[in-house]
Amino acid sequence: MSSSPEPTLDRRALLDSLVAALERRHEVLDAIIESTDRDDAARNVRRLLDVPAEHADAVLNMQLWRLNRQDLRRMQKELEDVNSALNWITPSDRDVRLRPFVKQEPDTSLYRARATEPREDGTTLHAPGQIDTAIDEGLARIDEESAAWFVVEDPDDDGKAVGLAVGELGDHGEVELRLWITPECRGQGFGTSTLKESRGELAACFPGVNLVVRTKLGR
Known about the structure:
By secondary structure, the protein is an alpha+beta fold. The protein has helices spanning about 5-25, 25-35, 40-50, 55-60, 70-90, 105-115, 130-145, 190-205; strands spanning about 95-100, 145-155, 160-170, 175-180, 210-215.
């Protein structure tokens, strides 16, 4: 998948639709209750909110417990953040491509490098002997649809792997995104472009769920 401003713009449009659904949650619920089946509900939500079909599906996929004021405020805050992001995402961003992580080279070496790189406090993500277990546990979460791991590739360099984007569904119903770019590729725009691509990918994997970025760009 090529990088462009579109994943961020798509994410902003989706958030706009979800915020509108939360703001009009009573009307949305009435429209769903009056529907004959799921397809009819999707059509009714689409007409009510005047949104694309995929956005109506995302509204239907939202958990009922998210129809509350606190989640509305959180989603509005994320929308503000995405709007702000458009100010610092420029055409000079690097082109990147994301593909699913698999337990083979070069993916395992990337994860090993990420897991053993010293952090600011001198600790590492995992001890060397724990890495294979951590990968297996991560792949299990992917199968359970509670995580989505991607390898970041540079299509301008024969698809060279330059980093990882790890999305994990947290205990509070938010997706935590951790970005890691290899040391030699930092400061070249890969982090910003990976954030753009990750937003679109994770929005598709976890519709209607807030995204929290836990790692600094390029790290």
